Amino acid sequence: MAGYEPWYEEIEETKTEKKTKPPRLYRVLLLNDDYTTMDFVVYVLETVFNKPRDEAVRIMLHVHQRGVGLCGIYTREIAETKVNTVHELARKNNYPLKCIMERE
Asked: Terminus of the chain with fewer CB atoms < 10 Å: N or C?
């Protein structure tokens, strides 16, 4: 079939590589206060941040001595959830414990 032209066009496929940026990370910090018990802070670190007991005690002592302690580094959504969970737990147990997040 000489001279036959297809009714469709052949399209050459090209692959474009999308480079995704890694998500921004946020540090979640516990702040010291004069009313929250050390036991409650350890409990929060173990339950909310999944820290083993010895690490939870170490972080709690750091918060107690220096006024602030790092609980972990997370993506924004996870960090927000952790902060809110700490505030809810503290409020339910009548403690003024504060937790903040800051950009890494």
From this structure: N
